[in-house]
Design brief:
It is an enzyme of class 2 (transferase). Keywords: ATP-binding, Kinase, Nucleotide-binding, Transferase. It holds the Pfam family PfkB. Belongs to the carbohydrate kinase PfkB family. 33% of the residues lie in helices and 27% in strands. The protein is of the alpha/beta class. The chain has helices at 38-48, 61-73, 112-125, 146-156, 167-174, 185-192, 199-211, 250-260, 265-279; strands at residues 2-5, 10-17, 30-36, 53-59, 77-82, 88-95, 100-103, 131-135, 161-164, 180-181, 196-198, 216-220, 226-230, 233-239, 298-301, 309-314. It has one domain: Ribokinase (UDP-N-acetylmuramoyl-L-alanine:D-glutamate ligase, 3-Layer(aba) Sandwich). It is built from 9 helices and 16 strands. Helix 5 (167-174) links the parallel strand 9 and strand 10 (180-181). It has a 6-stranded parallel beta sheet with strand order 5-4-1-8-9-10, sandwiched between helices.
Length: 315
């Protein structure tokens, strides 16, 4: 079982438009409504693969009730933490050329009692988990140290934890030694405080994040591929993608694929790359099922192309 923790979940509405015209009436060609949040997306991808998953998340108001209903309909067990504030609603506008515009609401502010209940629920639900994935931004009221506290409690219970967050929340959690962290290129650059222009730059940055405490780093480099750096080695993975429909949740699908495949080594990296590549070919934040994967399009190598320039360098 893979347990996910989403401290700031959302109700996500995605509209597909030919091209976004600012200041004009834009008519959508398609629309979707999905339960949102990075951990929620990981659970959705795990469930799509036919694996058991439990989602821990604070829920409040009518949007929170709808999130729980949508998750249940997808076969995801929900461990809700009731909160007084309403769960946030987010909007995404996906253009036909792959450009995505997102409007994310801040979400409710959690009280001290609600924060403690969230941590305690994670501890209680983690007993049967193979992996725990803590993902996304922190809602108002939670200090940047909250993820570090979560990592410490999970480790005290003997479980493994993957962390997908950024900024101070990521840096303050590294001292608790999460088993895996999954930054994208921008988050990786921010963690080390310098730009990334090549795959080699990303590799060096991942090694520095490991030196700060992460036991392994799974770095998403967008269209360039993914890096896995751990104490057993470093690998680079990429996949052929014919077209991009939406990159919403692609990183979350990658993390799910990584954990589904055991969460360690080149085989898990190959699964992560396959899931991420499949996700970008699907609309909105739809998570890939096994039939959507194309393992033959994936290449994983220990011969990392350190001199390759990133197609999307981070300044």
């Amino acid at each position: 079982m893979i347990l996910t923790v989403t401290p700031n979940p959302s109700l996500d509405r995605t509209y597909e438009v030919p091209a976004l015209e600012r200041g004009e009436v834009n008519r959508a060609s398609a629309e979707r409504m999905d339960p949102g949040g990075k951990g929620v997306n990981v659970s959705r991808a795990v469930a799509a693969a036919g694996r058991r998953t439990v989602a821990v998340l604070p829920l409040g108001g009518a949007p929170g009730a709808l999130v729980a209903h949508l998750l249940d309909a997808q076969g995801i067990e929900v461990a809700p933490v009731p909160v007084a504030g309403a769960t946030r609603s987010n909007i995404a506008l996906a253009e036909s050329d792959g450009v995505l515009t997102k409007i994310n609401a801040p979400g409710p502010e959690l009280s001290a009692a609600e924060q403690e209940l969230l941590l305690e629920t994670v501890r209680e639900q983690s007993r049967d988990a193979d992996w725990i994935a803590c993902c996304g931004s922190l809602p108002r009221g939670l200090a940047p140290s909250w993820y570090g506290d979560a990592v410490a409690r999970v480790h005290a219970g003997g479980a493994r934890i993957a962390l997908d967050t950024s900024g101070r929340a990521l840096l303050e959690a590294l001292g608790a030694r999460p088993d895996v962290v999954k930054p994208n290129a921008e988050e990786l650059a921010a963690a080390v405080g310098r730009p990334l222009a090549t795959v080699g730059d990303a590799l060096k940055a991942a090694e520095e994040v490991r030196a700060l405490g992460a036991r392994a780093v799974l770095a998403s480099l967008g269209a360039d591929g993914q890096l896995l750096v751990s104490d057993t080695g470093a690998w680079f993975g990429c996949a052929r993608v014919s077209s991009v429909r939406s990159n919403v949740g692609a990183g979350d699908a990658s993390l799910a694929g990584f954990l589904i495949a055991g969460g360690t080594g080149p085989e898990a990296l190959a699964s992560a790359v396959a899931h991420g590549a499949a996700a970008v070919r699907l609309p909105g934040s739809v998570m890939p099922a096994p039939a959507d994967l194309d393992p033959a399009a994936v290449t994983v190598t220990a011969d990392i192309p350190v001199d390759r320039e990133l197609m999307e360098p981070v300044s």
